[in-house]
Amino acid sequence: MTLLSNPAMTPLTSFPLNGVSGGSAVASVPEASEEELARLAEASERLEKATPQEIIAWAVENYFPKLTMATGFGPEGCLIIHWLAKIEPRTALFNLETGYQFEETLALRDRIAERYGMVVELKRPELSVAEYEAANGGPVYKTDPNRCCFDRKIKSLQAAAVGMKAWMSGIRRDQSPDRARAPIVGWDKKFGLVKISPLANSTKKDIWRVIMAENVPYNPLHDQGYTSIGCWPCTRAITFGEDERAGRWSGTAKTECGLHTLPQQD
Questions:
Q1: Rounded-to-integer distance, Cα 23 and Cα 191, Å
Q2: Which of 148, 231, 234, 257 is catalytic?
Q3: How is domain 32-215 classified at the CATH fold level?
Q4: 232, 203, 206: which is closest to 219 by C-alpha?
Q5: Which is nearest to 42 in space by CA: 14, 64, 62?
Q6: Selection from 109, 65, 121, 114 nearest residue 90 by Cα
Q7: Tens digit of pLDDT for each residue in 31-88?
Q8: Catalytic annotation present for 257
Q9: Which of 9, 42, 102, 136 supports an S-S bond with 30, CB 3.0-4.6 Å?
Q10: Domain map (residue ranges) of the chain
Q11: What's the rounded Cα separation, in Å, for the pair 30 and 190?
């Protein structure tokens, strides 16, 4: 397998990190050169038929120790950690701890640490939930969920990206129309990092088959109808026949927190 060189990046420029409407902060993030974008596109095409383990190994070989992984402790993230424990357990792992996560989600972090010896660092916003709600006259998730996600997730990932060259995510193309366009490897403009999605070509059935076969720890809320788990105020169990992400921001037009939103095509 031909290895990809580390990113050759142009000087820092200002780029709005509002992957969701409502975010207005602007931060300086690196931009990729045209040459680097072409190399990433070539690598992504070459990895289309690779297994998730091969993609993870490629990511480690090219970017470790400047490689990190964000996980919300969904089944996909848990499975990637399961494989990372064998490929490179020193990979930096983090979770965007908004302060609104389910107790079961945070308990899963402890189970993962016990099973693999890999501690997922909690990245928290500057303001606690109490401080944030006091400053905004109450829960922002009720009045402007886009801004809540921006303030308590997007900004935290921006901080977590400092010093890193690439990050891995557990998104799958079959999860939503927007994610259907996700490359295996690409440039994430919002955070100035190479983004690697080892499970982009996998299906929900693929994920759960391995989890069950290899006894991978997972969130017990999945057994209660919660197919996609985020913050408790904006997550519900789904009913029969609903899309697996129907329980996120139910009753609104919102479908993504903004971490994985791709630029709109012309």
A1: 14
A2: 257
A3: Rossmann fold (3.40.50)
A4: 232
A5: 62
A6: 65
A7: 999 999 999 999 999 999 999 999 999 999 999 999 999 999 999 999 999 999 999 9
A8: yes
A9: 9
A10: 32-215
A11: 9
